[in-house]
Each structure stands twice: as structure tokens, then as C-alpha cells.
Amino acid sequence: ARPVTNANFLVDLGAGHPERPAAGFHEVVFPPFAAGGACSAPLMLRRGVTGSRDLIEWWDQARAGTPAEPRTVTVALLADDRITVVRTWHFGRVRPVALSYSPLNALQGTVLMETIELTFETVDIR
User: Fold this and answer.
1) How far apart are CA 106 and CA 87, in angstroms?
2) CA distance 22 to 3
3) Which of 40, 70, 77, 91 would disulfide-bridge 87, Cβ 3.0–4.6 Å?
């Protein structure tokens, strides 16, 4: 068995639609998972900015003190065939804690990135 690359994955933000363009994250940064208790570091998801406002609205609800129900966020690592699921991380009781953007720079003209940082209470790795 050959190791799987880290380039093929899907993210479901709790809506059950990981194939939608708004779920098209280019990077998932996992925190270290401690064996003996809750994790204090956030799960970070990064994507290019599009017209989607789903992350802004989710973060804004939390910021305003009227957060929506906690979500289950799922990250599925796919094999090179982009069909076979190799590993799945299910994060339970997820809430946004920070939203950030890469710098605006007229000299570089690269894709503007948005990052959402999420806290979670549970993780199940399968």
C-alpha cells in the first residue's frame, strides 16, 4: 500500500453538501489531537474568496452572541481516484471563533484567501 497524498479532500460544514463550491477549501490545518482531554487549538479551514457569504454569516452570528446551533464538520481524505474515502475526521459541536483574510496587494495579484478558525468539543477519526 502506497501513502495517500494530501491534495484530495472534501469538507462538509454541516450542511451535507461537500461538493458545493462554497465547500471548496484548499487547505485544512488540523490541531494536534491530545489523548487525554479537549483540544485547545482551533481547526482552520482556508479557501479562496468567492461570492459566498456562508462563513461570514456563521462567524457573524457567533460574534453577535446569537450563535447558531453547533455543527458537525466532516473532513474526508480521498484516494487518488477521488472517489474512495481513506480517512474521515468528524468534528462535533463546532463553532467559529475567528475569520481572517490574506493581505490585499495590488502588486502581486494573487487569490484572496479567507480562513475560518473553529473550536470543537469532539473529534472522531475513522
Assistant:
1) 39
2) 28
3) 77
